[in-house]
Structure formats: structure tokens, C-alpha cells
Amino acid sequence: MTDDVAQAEAVVNELLHKRSRLVAHATELTDERFAISFGSGQGYAPEAFPRLGEINAALALLDSELRSVDVALVEARKRLALEEGRAT
Question: How many domains does the chain have?
Fold first, then answer.
């Protein structure tokens, strides 16, 4: 395996790990939102409204980051395939 292939694989793996962390964080925030949204929506926990706003903002940012990572992964996989083709 050439250094270029190894570097391309490292980029793909790094992006996959980043994507996994983003998805895990989004899942945690979504779980928290579900846990507190009923009470705040029904007036039982009005103190939860600020936290819901924070969660919604964080999820919007995470969605944007996830889309960027997905696009980067497509390109990284193309480059990996190109390097693998050159190595053979």
C-alpha cells in the first residue's frame, strides 16, 4: 500500500469518526429534547424553554456539520479510489 493510499484511507477514517461523533451527539440532544419538550409544551416546565432553544440551535448546527462531513466523505472516497487505482 502506498503512502498516498494510506493517507487517503486515514482521511476517510477520520471523517467517519467525526460523523459518528456528530450522530451520537445529535442522538443525545434529541433524547433530551424528547424528555423535556412535553412538559415545557404543556406549561408544566416553563423553565425548560431556554434549554429547548439551546438544543434546537445545537441540532441545527449539527445537521449542517453532518451534511458537510457527508459531502467531504463522498470526495474523500473518490480520492481514495483514485489513489488505489494508481497503486495497482
Answer: 1
| DSSP notation for 29-61 | HHHHHHHHHHHHHTTS-GGGHHHHHHHHHHHHH
Question: Could you give the CA distance from residue 40 to residue 52 in angstroms, rounded to a whole number?
Answer: 9
* Angle at 33 (CA atoms; ends 58, 45), nearest 5 degrees: 120
Phi, psi of 45 (to 5 degrees): -140, 65
Mean pLDDT, residues 26-54: 83
In Å, the largest CA–CA distance within the chain is: 65
pTM: 0.85
Instruction: Say if CB 22 and CB 66 are below 8 A apart.
Output: yes
- Which residue range is the domain that position 70 belongs to? 3-87
DSSP 88: -
